Amino acid sequence: MKNILILTTVSGFLKKFEMENVKILQSMGYMVHYAANMNEQHYPFDEKELERAGIRLHHIDIARSPYMLNYNMKAFWQLAAIIKQNHICAIHCHTPVGGMLGRQMGWWFRRRQLQIIYTAHGFHFYKGAPFINNTIYYFVERFLAHFTDLLVVINKEDYKNAKKFHLRKNGKVYHIPGIGLDLERFSPLTEKERREKRKKLGITEDDFFLVSVGELNENKNQQIILRALEQMRRAGKDISKIKYGICGDGFFREKIERMIQTLGLEHNVRMFGYCMDVREILGCADVSVFPSRREGLGMAGLEALAMEIPLLAAENRGTREYLKPGINGYFCESDSVSSWINGLETIRNLAPNVRQEMKRMCRKSAEVFGKENTNAIMKLVYQDLDKRLECVRNGRKGEDQCHHGCV
Predict the structure, then answer these.
(1) In 87-130, where do the E strands start and end?
(2) Which of 86, 191, 268, 309 fits a disulfide with 304 by CB distance 3.0 to 4.6 angstroms?
(3) How deeply is 111 buried, as exposed, middle or buried, from its count of CB atoms within 10 A (0-12, 13-18, 19+)?
C-alpha cells in the first residue's frame, strides 16, 4: 500500500476542496492520510464522514500564521512522527503554512526521498502586491521550491513565475484550471425555482439582488459594496429595491455588522453567515459582486458564472482568468466606491436581450474550469508521482535520470 499525506492548515479544507483528488489517489491504490489542525474547522465537516471514505485523520498543532512559531515547531515534529509511523512516501501540501511545513519535511526526509507536491492556491507575491509580498514571500517560495518535486498552480501569472523556480532535480510545474468546478451542482436555476427561492428569501421580482460569497476578512473587501450603497443613497438615488446578501463568516463579521448599522443599511443588507449550500442563494442573484483585492483564482466567481449570474469583480490575477468585460460581467477598481457604483448601475440597466446573452456567456466561460478538466491534469500529476516513487523503490536515487525521466 502506498501511503500519501495531504497536508493543510485548517481541517475542513480537504472536504471542501480536495475530495476529487482523494478519489483519484484511491483509484490508483494510495492510502490517503490527512493532517491538519482538527480544532480549527474553518470549513465545517464531519470527521466520521471522512473516515468512512477511507481517509486516516491526524491532528497537528499547525497555525494559520507562520509567525506562531511554538505551534508550528510542534507541528513540525508531529508531522515527522506521522511520516515515520505510517510509512508516508509522499506529501501533497496546500495553504501557505501547510506548504511551508510540507516542503520542510521534504528536506528533513531527503535521504528517504520523500516526494513533495505543493499546490499553490495563489502565491502571496504577484503583480501589484505590497513590497513585503514581492520580496520576502517571493524569496521564501523560491527557496522552498528547492525541496519541491511537483508544483501545481492555478493561474497563468503564477505559472509564469513558477517556471522560473529551481525545483528538485527534474521537478515539474503543472497548471490546472482551478480546483475543479462542479458544473452539475452549480447549474442555473429554472425560472420557477428562482421565483420560489427568491420569495422564500424575501426578495421580490422588482428587487435588484446582489450576492457576495467569501470569508469575512479584509482581503474579501465586502465593505466597499456597503460604502457604494451608502454613497448612492447620499447622492439621492433610490436604493430601496437594491438588496445585498453576504454569504460567509470570519473575523470581520462584527465589523461588517456595525458598519451596516452605522450606514443605515439594515433594510438593504442581509448576512447569511456560512452557507452549507450557497447555490440556493447564489442562484437567486441578479449579479454576483466579488470585490476581493487578491485571488489565486476565485471559485466563488466561477460558481456564479456557472449559474448564469453576471459577475462584477475587482481585477486581479485570479479574476482575469475568466472575467471578460462586457461579455460575462465587468471589472471594478477594488477600493474605488465610484467604480463599484458605475458597475452596479451598468448591470442594473442592461437591456433584457443583452442581459440574456450575458447570462449565456457566463455559463460558457465557466465550462473550461469544470472538474473533469482539472481531474484530468491532476491524474497526470499523480501518475508523474507514481513514476518517481517507482524509481525510488528500484534504487535509482543515485542515477542522474531513470527511464521515466525523473530522479
Answers:
(1) 88-93, 115-120
(2) 309
(3) exposed
Query: pLDDT tens digits, residue range 236-251?
Result: 999 999 999 999 999 9
CB under 8 A, 24+ apart: contacts of 101-110: 101/7, 101/62, 101/72, 101/75, 101/76, 102/7, 103/144, 103/147, 103/148, 104/76, 104/144, 104/147, 105/79, 105/80, 106/147, 106/148, 106/149, 106/168, 107/147, 108/80, 109/80, 109/83, 110/147
| Segment 88-133, tens digit of pLDDT | 999 999 999 999 999 999 999 998 899 999 999 999 999 888 998 8
Domain ranges of the chain: 2-180+370-393, 191-368
CA atoms within 13 A on the CB side of 269: 24
Q: Is the CA virtual torsion 10, 13, 15, 16 positive or negative?
A: positive
Domain 2-180+370-393 fold is Rossmann fold (3.40.50)
CA atoms within 13 A on the CB side of 360: 6
Type of residue found at 201:
L
Count of other CB atoms within 10 angstroms of residue 224:
20
